[in-house]
Structure formats: structure tokens, C-alpha cells
Automatic annotation (TrEMBL):
Signal peptide: none annotated. SMART domains: Molybdop_Fe4S4. It comes from Streptomyces pilosus. Residues 2-58 form the 4Fe-4S Mo/W bis-MGD-type domain. Keywords: 4Fe-4S, Iron, Iron-sulfur, Metal-binding, Oxidoreductase. GO terms for cellular component: membrane. GO terms for molecular function: 4 iron, 4 sulfur cluster binding; metal ion binding; molybdopterin cofactor binding; oxidoreductase activity. Pfam families: Molybdop_Fe4S4 (PF04879), Molybdopterin (PF00384), Molydop_binding (PF01568). This is Dehydrogenase. InterPro entries: MoPterin_dinucl-bd_dom, Mopterin_OxRdtase, Mopterin_OxRdtase_4Fe-4S_dom, Prok_molybdopt-oxidoreductase. It comes from the Bacteria.
Length: 754
């Protein structure tokens, strides 16, 4: 019998609403939900392939436990017994930091991944935390922490109302957006142009987004911070600075102007390969627009000056009066945010509260660089214990982190490893225990993280579209049991994990004079919670305590889970609104334009003014039908343009003797790979491009379709030594490489990257 069910798509950051067709308990079709308050029926190829992703025959159905060196199917009880027996002795003998936790990108796409890993980390007491953020977005977190006092307070462009949008290193027509949750990002950009607005794209590749732009600037990779600094310099130099409504909430304007004095358009022109007048035009256009927003993403983050580039994005929004105003860049207000506190000074944001053991990398937002994971396992030092046990949740760093070969060997040397993953992939194949979550149709969904980055305030929740199959365990229960097994409470009722969080949260809220439940009995409040499970009770609690909540009766008509369930297509909470100064948590209570760590890093950027890189540099790229290494095992999402080829400009191809389709060898500091050449003028001369997430050719995996066309691991070209020093983010773009046809010995050698 056929029926339909609603589901929020978890396959990228756009969070589109889907209408699933279900036949005999199986998803057989997916289309956009036209009544969804946010996505309004938009769907991309990933969402359309939801059924194929959900029913992939290579998804693990039962836990695996290593016995006599081989992974064998086991019961859930046997699996969690093995977890407790493997992790606890490491903690007891070597201390909590000898247990590492690795969190992959999919964690922010599931309810379970948002609710339980923080409890695991806190329960273990480990500082050995590594996440996908240091391969992607940590520079933005660090710059936001330094500017605004909160690493998660990230302004997003007001796409639906802006008159001028400047995109730096972003390709939302392929990615659907990142750190900017916007269903139908392509449609929103076309609407911008249709209403007479201007789109400018800065990218070394002529991407689909760049082809839509009014102006495309093919900047030299890795020089985004120099370009943005020169634009800011121009605003000061030509008296174009106008802080607008946020002027009372800004500190350090004069100091900023002095710090940027050396970054003239003429000074940056040679390094950026952009003429000075074009730089000035960009600044003037930004200042003259009725409203404008600057938005930078992965291309500007995964470079040597990623934090400075991320900082300068928001500096430009401040200097042009576009921060915190409609049509500019605003701070979303999610329904599950904490109760807003009164404006005023906060505790600020600190970097380097501890350091990695081997190379002494400073922590950022409680995390160590993923690039340091291998050395933290395989390198002994006199200071502290190596990582001897690892908990990996939805993570495949063998493909996503630099020098996967070294990490591959390091994982094999661990005393114990547990992986929560639906696949036996390049990383989970090393685990002693693999705990497979169910397919997404069998899980509930609410976007905690992405709603804090959404271009419109809204709230949506979907219960499982399909009941759990026999033998499956809910992902929320898997992670709750993992918390118990890893922290010495193995065998306790997993519901106790949620009860503990509810009790602590309500107790804290009752003691907070700014909370709507101040002075009330936490136990009585807990008894009022609705929902059919621990995770739903926690969601109800967060909604009721949040900025739109009913405050457990204090605000009749406010949000509750019951009200949200009565609106299956979601509840629209309105456009983004100015919020300053309330969300600022800096010590001054203001936007601190020139924080000390930023000022201390500017000499490094100043030194880059003299750079004139020769030879070839490598950049990555994204495909619309892919998300990192997740989806290469789904036939409907591979093939066509989603191929692992090396883009080479015709001029470079001619000089190197490379023909279209010919195998070429690419060599970097971390190793070499061989991939087919794709000769195209979509990349600027001097730049080659390989996509991310490929390399599915290691033994012991169970992803049959991916293995038929494995591609190559672009991150094997990196040795992990290049990091943005402020954030610890890996430098994945603008790195020097050598390229040569496989049949020939001639190579082109680049200069050193500084």
C-alpha cells in the first residue's frame, strides 16, 4: 500500500522539505514539499535520490565486532559490551586525553549527532577532540568568536532583500550553500538579479555561480584576505566608511584603519593578480549599494590566511553599515536558541586554552586540528600520552583529512576504536566495533545547527517516516548507549542520559533570573514536557525555553513541541531582524573590530604582499550531486559531471603536453595521485582542480558502487603541515603541486607556498 510522509532532507545544508512516497515500508520516491514554509517545494538531485540513499544495500544492518582480527556481525548487547571493555581500560590506565573523539560532517545533519556527542566528550573529559570543522569552517568560528564573543554567532547574508551580494570562494549553485542555510540558493540569486541587484563572485574557477554573476574576479588562490584588506583600506582611504545603525556597538575603528594602512590596492595587486582599479571598484560598489552583504565560504577558509579572510568579510559588512540590518548580514534567531539574555559585556572568546601534544597547535572552540590526528596517535613525546583509543562518529578522515595514508596506518595501531557509521568505509574498516545507525527515513529530524544559520527564521520537525526495522536501533539510542559505555555507566537505562540533561537544564533555567521559568520547580517543569521519547522531550524543553517558546505557560501561544507537531510543514517565524547588541558576548559588549590575535597575525599577511607564486597550485571543487565522501555509493548521484578529474587550463595543458582525458600524475608534499585530465578554461591559468571525497579503493571496505569508479584522494597530496595558525584549519586550497602526463617525465615545479 502506498502512502506519503514528510521529511526534512539531511543531505546538505539547505534543509529542504520533502514529500516521500512509501510503499511497503520502503521509500520509493521523493519530491519537494510545496507547503514547506522554508523550501516551498525546491528539491535538488540529492533530495530526489533520497530513496536510493535510504535503501543503499551496502548500509550495515547489524553491529560489527572484531574477533580474531576480523569484523563479524554481533548483537547490540555484544557490541556495547565490547565498547565498554575497550575504552574504559584506556581511560583508567592512561587518562581521559588518551581517548580521542572524531566527529564528521554528518553529525550536524541529524538530531542524534547534535544532542549526544557533547555529552560523550564531557563525560570522557577528553581534550583530544577532532572534527570536520578544522577541514572546513573553523576560521569563521574563530573570527566570529573574536569579533562577537561567540564562535557560533555567525551573520548570514539577507539573500532575499539585499541589493548587492559579494561572494568569496563560494559556489552555492553546486553546494546549495554553506554556513548560510537557504533552500533554493540558486533561485534566490536569480531573484536578486531579477530585482535589479548585483552579484559579484571572487573565485579562481568559473563555477556555475560565477557564470551567473555580473562580475567574476578570478583571483589567485589563497589571496582572498589580501583582496579584502585592500577593499577595507579603500573604504578608509576614500572616506567611505559608514557604520550605520551598528555604530554605537563597534569598538576599534581607528585602530583598524591604522592596521590596514599598508594594504593598498597597488600593494596587493601583484599577489592577487587583480589590478588596483578593480579592487577600488569593488569597494566603491559595496559602499554605494543601498544594501549589501559580503559572504565568504570554504574557498576563503581553507587557505593560509583563512581566519583573516573570514574576519575581513565581516569587517567589510561593518564598515559599509551592512552588519545587522535588513538586506545586509544579520544574525538568525533559531527556535531552540537559549533564552536571550540582556545586552552587556560577556566572557569573550579565548584561543589556545590547551595545545596538541606533538606540534603544540592551540585549541580552537575546544577542538584540535584534524590534520594533527595521525601524529597524536603515532608519535610519542615526553608530554602526555598518545591517543590510544578513538571514538569516530560519522567520520571518514582517511579521505577527508590530509595524508590519509599516514592516518590509515595510525588507525591500525590503536588499542581500540569504535565507529558509528552506516558503512564499512575507509575509516570505519579499522574499528573494533562498528555501530550502524538506521537509514534517515527511520529517524526523526530537526535542524539545530542549520536553523542558527538560516536566511529566514523558521522551525520544522519531522518524525520518522518509516518505523524502525526489526533489529535496528535508533541513532539516538545508539549514541546514548555509547555515552554510557564510554563513561563507566555501561548497562544503565539509556533514557537516563536524556533525563540527566533535562534535569540539569531545567535546574539551571529555574535559577536564571532572565529565564521565563525562574524560581519554578524543575521537577514540575519536567513533568510538563511532551513528546514520545527522550529526544522529543529535550526538543520540547528547548522550544519552550527558547526565544519563541511558551515558557512553560508564561507566554501563552508560544512554541511547544505539540504546537510544532500540529504544523507538519513547519512554522514561519519571520524574516531576519536586527539583534545588536543583545547577542554580543565580548568583554566590551561591542563588536571588537581588531582583536589582539587578529592584530598579531597581520604581519604574516603583510609578508604575503611580496608573494608571486610560480608554477601550479591546486584547488578543490564541489559537485551538486555529492557531499564530501557520503554519496559516491549511490549510482543516481555519480557519473555525469560528478567525476574525479583534474581540471587543467588549456594554456597549462599545452605547455605540459597534457591532452584531454589523458592520465596525469599530480604530486604534492604528501604524495601523488593519478587522475584523468579534463582540459577546461573553467580554471584560471596556473590553477588545477581536483574534487574532494574520492579515493574509494582501499581494501576491506563495503561500498561496492563507489569501488567501481573510486577516483583519487586529493588530500593525499597534502602532508598536514600547512595550517591556518589561528584556527588550526587545514590548508586545502592554493597548495603547490607538480603535474605531468603519466607517459612522460616532464614536470612543472611550483615555488614554495608561504
Amino acid at each position: 500500500m502506498s502512502r506519503t510522509a514528510l521529511r526534512i532532507c539531511p543531505l546538505c545544508e539547505a534543509t529542504c522539505g520533502l514529500t516521500l512516497t512509501i510503499d511497503d515500508g520502503r521509500v520509493t520516491g521523493a519530491r519537494g514539499d510545496r507547503d514547506d514554509v522554508f523550501s516551498k517545494g525546491f528539491i535538488c538531485p540529492k533530495g530526489a535520490a533520497f530513496g536510493a540513499v535510504d535503501s543503499d544495500p551496502d548500509r550495515l544492518r547489524t553491529p560489527l565486532v572484531r574477533v580474531d582480527g576480523e569484523l563479524r556481525e554481533a548483537t547490540w548487547e555484544e557490541a556495547f559490551d565490547a565498547v565498554a571493555a575497550g575504552i574504559r581500560p584506556v581511560v583508567e590506565r592512561y587518562g581521559p586525553h588518551a581517548v580521542g573523539v572524531v566527529l564528521g560532517n554528518p553529525n550536524v545533519h541529524t538530531m542524534a549527532g547534535a544532542l549526544y556527542p557533547p555529552l560523550l566528550i564531557a563525560g570522557l573529559g577528553t581534550r583530544s577532540l577532532f572534527t570536520a570543522s578544522t577541514l572546513d569552517q573553523m576560521p569563521k568560528h574563530v573570527s566570529s568568536g573574536l569579533l562577537f564573543g561567540d564562535a557560533n554567532l555567525i551573520p548570514v547574508p539577507d539573500l532575499d532583500r539585499t541589493d548587492h551580494l559579494l561572494l568569496i570562494g563560494a559556489n552555492p549553485l553546486e553546494s546549495n550553500g554553506s554556513l548560510c542555510t537557504a533552500p533554493d540558493f540558486p533561485g534566490r540569486l536569480r531573484a536578486l538579479k531579477a530585482r535589479g541587484g548585483t552579484l559579484t563572485v571572487v573565485d579562481p574557477r568559473r563555477t556555475r555561480t560565477a557564470r551567473l554573476a555580473d562580475r567574476h574576479l578570478a583571483v589567485r588562490p589563497g589571496t582572498d584576505a589580501l583582496l579584502l584588506a585592500a577593499m577595507a583600506h579603500t573604504l578608509f582611504d576614500e572616506d567611505l566608511v559608514d557604520l550605520g545603525g551598528c555604530a554605537p556597538y563597534v569598538d576599534g575603528l581607528d585602530e583598524l584603519g591604522a592596521a590596514l594602512r599598508d594594504f593598498t590596492p597597488e600593494a596587493v595587486s601583484g599577489a592577487c593578480d587583480v589590478d588596483a582599479e578593480t579592487v577600488r571598484a569593488l569597494a566603491r560598489e559595496l559602499a554605494a549599494a543601498p544594501t549589501a552583504a559580503v559572504y565568504g565560504r570554504i574557498g576563503s577558509c581553507t587557505v593560509p590566511h583563512g581566519t583573516l579572510a573570514s574576519w575581513l568579510v565581516d569587517v567589510l559588512n561593518v564598515l559599509t553599515g551592512n552588519l545587522d540590518r535588513p538586506g545586509g548580514a544579520l544574525f538568525p534567531q533559531a527556535a531552540t536558541d537559549r533564552t536571550p539574555r540582556p545586552a552587556g559585556p560577556g566572557r569573550g572568546f579565548a584561543l589556545g586554552r590547551w595545545h596538541s601534544r606533538v606540534r603544540r597547535h592551540p585549541e580552537a572552540k575546544g577542538e584540535l586540528p584534524m590534520s594533527a590526528l595521525a601524529e597524536e596517535i603515532d608519535t610519542p613525546t615526553d608530554e602526555g600520552e598518545p591517543v590510544r583509543a578513538l571514538v569516530a562518529v560519522a567520520a571518514n578522515p582517511v579521505l577527508s583529512a590530509p595524508d590519509g595514508d599516514r592516518l590509515d596506518k595510525a588507525l591500525g595501531s590503536l588499542d581500540f576504536m569504535v565507529s558509528v557509521d552506516p558503512y564499512l568505509n575507509e575509516t570505519s574498516r579499522h574499528a573494533d566495533v562498528v555501530l550502524p545507525p538506521p537509514p534517515p527515513a527511520q529517524s526523526p529530524h530537526h535542524d539545530f545547527a542549520f536553523n542558527t544559520l538560516a536566511v529566514r527564521n523558521q522551525v520544522r520537525y519531522t518524525r520518522p517516516a518509516v518505523p524502525l526495522e526489526p533489529g535496528r536501533m535508533a541513532e539516538t539510542e545508539i549514541l546514548a548507549r555509547l555515552v554510557l559505555a564510554a563513561t563507566g555507566m555501561h548497562g544503565a537505562d539509556p533514557a537516563a542520559v536524556d533525563d540527566l540533561v533535562v534535569g540539569r537544564t531545567l535546574g539551571k533555567a529555574a535559577g536564571d533570573p532572565h529565564s521565563p521559568v525562574h524560581g519554578r520547580d524543575p521537577k514540575e517543569l519536567a513533568a510538563l514536557l511532551g513528546g514520545g521519547s527522550g529526544p522529543e522531550r529535550r526538543l520540547d524543553m528547548m522550544l519552550r525555553l527558547g526565544p519563541y517558546g511558551d515558557g512553560f505557560g508564561a507566554e501563552p501561544g508560544g512554541l511547544t513541541l505539540e504546537k510544532l507537531l500540529a504544523h507538519p510543514h513547519g512554522i514561519d517565524l519571520g524574516p531576519l531582524r536586527p539583534r545588536l547588541p543583545q547577542p554580543l558576548k565580548t568583554r566590551s559588549g561591542k563588536v571588537e573590530l581588531l582583536p589582539a590575535p587578529i592584530a598579531a597575525d597581520l604581519p604574516r599577511l603583510r609578508a604575503a604582499l611580496a608573494d608571486r607564486p610560480g608554477g601550479l597550485v591546486l584547488v578543490g571543487r564541489r559537485h551538486l550531486r555529492s557531499n564530501n565522501s557520503w554519496m559516491h555509493n549511490v549510482p543516481a548521484l555519480t557519473g555525469g559531471s560528478n567525476r574525479c578529474t583534474l581540471h587543467v587550463h588549456p594554456d597549462d595543458a599545452g605547455r605540459l603536453g597534457v591532452r584531454d582525458g589523458q592520465p596525469v600524475r599530480v604530486r604534492g608534499a604528501g604524495g601523488e595521485v593519478t587522475a584523468p585530465a579534463e582540459v577546461t578554461d573553467a580554471v584560471r591559468p596556473g590553477v588545477v582542480s581536483l574534487p574532494h571525497g574520492w579515493g574509494h579503493d582501499r581494501p576491506g571496505t563495503r561500498t561496492r558502487h563507489a569501488a567501481t569508479d573510486p577516483g583519487v584522494n586529493v588530500n593525499q597530496l597534502l602532508d598536514g603541515s600547512l595550517l591556518d595558525p589561528l584556527s588550526g584549519n587545514a590548508v586545502l586550497n592554493g597548495v603547490p603541486v607538480e603535474v605531468a602526463p603519466v607517459a612522460e617525465a616532464v614536470t612543472e615545479t611550483s615555488g614554495a607556498l608561504t
